[in-house]
Amino acid sequence: MRNEFERLAAQQPIELLSMKRYELPAPSSGQKNDITAWQECVNNSMTQLEHQAVRIENLELMSQHGCNAWKVYNENLVHMIEHAQKTGSKLREMESNWNYEIEKTIVQLEKEIYQIKQQHGEANKENIHQDF
């Protein structure tokens, strides 16, 4: 990606696609009578023809099933997002309940501490009165 941005910044033209692999060269002039060289050329052309046939078949399959496959994929994504949102909502609710319970427990403990301090304070007052 960086190379492409550098190319754009330098205002260089886009590189043309190499069509070398699609060429079907005949044997060189020194191999015009060589059966093996011609066989290699024929094999190369058959390989490229088969490759093109596979590409055409893939395009036909995509045109027949591609739209439905994308629709199913998108539906799955929607369900996954909905599930994640519901789970997040439940998690937030659980967190809120947890925080409420913690706060409630803190208030209860503070009351108990206050009562204990008052009891100790009264006991200390009684001890002081008994000493005098």
TrEMBL record:
Q: Which family does it belong to?
A: Belongs to the SPF27 family.
What is the name attached to this protein's record?
A: Pre-mRNA-splicing factor SPF27
Q: Where in the cell is it found?
A: Nucleus
Q: Does the keyword Nucleus apply?
A: yes
Q: Which UniProt keywords apply?
A: mRNA processing, mRNA splicing, Nucleus, Spliceosome
GO terms classed as biological process: mRNA processing; RNA splicing
Q: Name one Pfam family in it.
A: BCAS2
The principal location of this protein is: nucleus
Domain of life, per the record? Eukaryota
Q: Which GO terms describe its cellular component?
A: catalytic step 2 spliceosome; precatalytic spliceosome; Prp19 complex
InterPro entries per record: SPF27
Question: To which species is this protein native?
Answer: Cricetulus griseus (Chinese hamster)
